[in-house]
Every structure is written in C-alpha cells, then in structure tokens.
Amino acid sequence: MKARVTEEGVVIPKKFLKDIKEVEIRQEGDVVVVFPKRKEDALFKLGRNPILCNAPDASENLDEYIY
Fold first, then answer.
1. Which segments in the chain show pLDDT lower than 70?
2. In Å, how far from its chain's centre is CA 22?
3. For 45, what's the count of Cα atoms within 13 Å in the CB-facing half-sphere?
C-alpha cells in the first residue's frame, strides 16, 4: 500500500488498527514504526508500590504467608 504524505502527515487506514485505541510512533533511523499501546498487564505493576509489614522475609518465604 502507498500513501501520500501531506503537510499534516500520513493517514493509516483503520483496518490496520482494528480494536486499537492508542499507538506509539517512533522513528528508528529512516524507518517510522507504529506500535499498538495495549492495556498494561496488572502483573507488571506488582511491586511498584510496596507496603511495609511485619514480615521482613515475605519475598523469600511467600508461600508461608499466602497459606
């Protein structure tokens, strides 16, 4: 597919972006790359805001505290 570059840029057809709500656009050398921004997985957020508790070895003995 070819697209004309205007003063405002290039339009990417919606069929290429299906259910995507937001994209990240990067330039890597002479190449422009468009990445879909997907909802961040909650697992990647674990440990970002740790709390203090009375279990200093919780990260080493997690199973003992879960059960």
1. none
2. 10
3. 5
Place of tokens 């199973």: 63
Q: Domain of residue 29: give its range.
A: 14-66
Q: Is residue 5 part of a domain?
A: no
Side chain identity at residue 49, one-letter code: N
pTM, to two decimals: 0.48
Q: Kindly give, in sequence order, each residue whose CB lies less than 8 Å from that of residue 65, ignoring residues fewer than 6 positions away.
A: 55, 58
3-state secondary structure the chain: CCCCCECCECCCCHHHCCCCCCEEEEEECCEEEEEECCCCCHHHHCCCCCCCCCCCCCCCCHHHHHC
Q: Does some domain include residue 58?
A: yes
